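Cross-posting from the chemistry board since nobody answered there.

I work mostly on the small-molecule side, so proteins are not my area. We synthesized indole-3-glycerol phosphate and want a rough idea of how it might sit in this target. Sequence and SMILES are below. Is it possible to get a predicted 3D structure of the two together?
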Amino acid sequence: MSDILKKICEAKVIEVAEAKKRSPFEVMRRDAESRVLTRDFVGALRAKIAQGQAAVIAEVKKASPSKGVIRADFDPADIAQSYMVGDGKTSAACLSVLTDRQFFQGEPDYLKQARASTLLPVLRKDFMVDPYQIYESRAMGADCVLLIAACLDDAQMAEMEQIARSLDMAVLVEVHDGAELERALKLKTPLIGINNRDLRTFEVSIQTTLDLQKQVPADRLLVTESGIASPEDVKTLRDAGIHAFLVGEAFMRADEPGDALAKLFA
Ligand SMILES: O=P(O)(O)OC[C@@H](O)[C@@H](O)c1c[nH]c2ccccc12
């Protein structure tokens, strides 16, 4: 595990211990189980692809450890609506919302606001280290959770996936190398995220996706993540048969994030 990832996951363990004191496990579980109807995250991606379009998971992210504050004027509901509309032709399939406070200046409320202002399925972007957080994700309204293979062992991933499925949530499992990908493929989820960002160096290369793509069976839905910034990047990836994208920074730096999305994927 990279140093930054290790630091974040250690902080998460403490954060979760505190959260459990405020809302004990059974309370959180009941809260999660009382929520009705998730939005179909995988279906929304597949629908775009079936129409010959790129399936874009558009991220709502204020700041990151590598870039600091990315967007000072930050209104999650406005941003989410902008993504949902796009330019009227090209728009997001799904949203991703950072809920981590300490490293990404995120908030659980941002997810609630983004989801309430749109009809799009929402991924909770955070660092899962404990099954408690899967219930917590559903309780805050998430339709999909992220499992980062580098943070978890096989048994933890399988357990968290099982809980997510029992709550009708989708799972995006994120990998950065071939060994992590092999482990991710033991899960049932179709959504395999390949992170182009190396969390040790913060270097970003879409070549990571192109290299690992061969190892992803055709019945899985590969999502290329991070560092997608130009129409050339998009063309290279789509020509290679990759149609699902997770993009944050390139949109967050634009005045109108949905316009930036439409331009990047037109
Ligand atoms: O802002 P970018 O380079 O477009 O990247 C978006 C997304 O892939 C990135 O935020 C991300 C990918 N995996 C993560 C895990 C945790 C936090 C953030 C991430």
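Reply from a structural biologist on the board:
Welcome over. Reading the output above for you: The CA atoms of residues 55 and 244 lie 5 Å apart. Residues 59, 61, 125, 174, 195, 225-228, 246-250 surround indole-3-glycerol phosphate (CB under 6 Å). Happy to explain the token format if needed.
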